[in-house]
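Batch manifest, entry 17 of 40.
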Amino acid sequence: MTTSRITYHHGDLRQAVLAAALDVIATEGPGALSLRDLARRAGVSHAAPAHHFKDRTGLLTAIATEGYELLAEALAGTPALVDRGARYVGFAVAHPAHFQVMFRPELLRADDPELLAAKEHASAELRAGVADLRGASDPRTAGIAAWSLAHGFATLLLSHNVDEAMGDRSPEAYFRELTAQLPPRERE
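Output type: structure tokens
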């Protein structure tokens, strides 16, 4: 029996497959993901990952669920909207594979209870950042505007479209500089 098969029986296969999947997604994108290839990398039978994820969609749903929970953790306890945006950007930089999968509903099981709970948890943290936004006539619209700024910047950052403009500044610091360009009312 190989070491990886022993590890599988100790319950580590799920995490090993998730870690390998995150590596593949980070380097090649979610389209390159194959349960058969991940099983080969883990040194287990091609059917073993299906015990944990059923299929590729199940695996991607698990990755998105984990990502939403990590995002909620990153945002928790941060009252200032700009700081929440900076943490959102920091999350995307720290977890690029999760970020790629989370916002691709066509890859996921939309009705998965764990995914729905994790999305709600992250959404509640996002909404908390705009709950007390002064001057916002519609908090939902203000929230989408703030999310668009953070998500758009994170997407540009991960696709290396702002590398030159950022220079040697950290993504979070540069995001704060971007928000400083907004009129004061929008930054409150």
